[in-house]
Amino acid sequence: MTRIIEIPVNTMPASVLPKRAETPVIDIVPHKKWRVLDFNELWAYRELLAFLCWRDVKVRYKQTVLGGAWAILQPLMTMIVFSIFFAKLANLSSGRIPYPLFAFAGLLPWTFFANAISAAGQSVVGSERLISKVYFPRLIIPLASVGAGLVDFAVACGMLGVLMFAYGVFPSTSLVLAPVIVLGLTVAAAGVGSLLAALNVAYRDFRYVIPFLMQLWMFATPTIYMDSTSLASGVWSWILPLNPAFGLIANFRAVVLGGTLDTYSLAVSLAVSAAMFAVGTLYFSRVERGFADII
């Protein structure tokens, strides 16, 4: 017959007691009012960023007949309209490049840039339920909106390749700089979009300012007319590249269509894009802890 003897735990020697797994201690403390962007924290939530990007892509084309074809139709239809009014009626010259291809190569990156800023500017207000219930780096929300725009841009690049083949235009070796230029546009869109997203939480007027701002910005950028080397002369050649979309879009069209690269405008626009990203994310980090209370 087996006898079971109960021994109080507090009387057992420490060597006999089972070892407990150490639980990591996480200290949650308020951060400083102004802080530099924490890339390690963003990297830790990279799966969430990818999920939100894919969510935005699916929501955008949910219950649509054409689906992802709208990513191509938007710049394509705009190109057709501008080709009729500027190339046929106004006789606007585009140099050796056929005007429809010239316009599409400028409208393609601009459409990505404008849509990314508009979506990012409205993203935080549109995610109020998520922000008020779960903790994660809030900057992921506008970054996901910009990332979803990159998917549309990649799809529309296929149409650009078709038009280039149809017109017999081929890029030069400078095409290797295209990813750098697209990265600059992405960084600038993320910075401006994050700034507008933070401002839109506190001041809902910005929901009306954003579309108006993008309309004005488009005509300050060489999307449908000659590039920076033809437009900028004298002091304007030093000032216009301060608009990041000016130098980046003009040089994107140059490297894709085999034109002349403007290294000065490219360098200045890339620097301004980095500065915009720093300012936008810095302000976003400054005010993000009050989003759940205001939104």
Task: Write a short abstract of this structure.
The chain is mainly α and 295 residues long.
Q: By helix and strand content, what is the structural category?
A: mainly alpha
The averaged pLDDT comes out at 81
Order of helices and strands: HHHHHHHHHHHHH
- Principal-axis shape equals globular
Rg over CA atoms:
26 Å
The count of strands amounts to 0
Total number of helices: 13
Uncertain spans = none
Helicity level: 55-70%
Major sheet description: none
Strand portion, in percent?
under 5%
Quote the distance from N terminus to C terminus: 70 Å
User: Into how many domains do the coordinates divide?
Assistant: 1
Keywords: Cell inner membrane, Cell membrane, Membrane, Transmembrane, Transmembrane helix, Transport
GO molecular function: ABC-type transporter activity
Protein name: Transport permease protein
Family: Belongs to the ABC-2 integral membrane protein family.
Topology, pairings included?
Layout: H1 39-44, H2 46-60, H3 70-89, H4 99-126, H5 128-133, H6 140-167, H7 178-202, H8 206-219, H9 228-231, H10 236-239, H11 244-257, H12 263-287, H13 291-294
Helix pairs in contact: 2-6, 3-4, 3-6, 4-6, 4-7, 4-8, 4-11, 6-7, 7-11, 7-12, 11-12
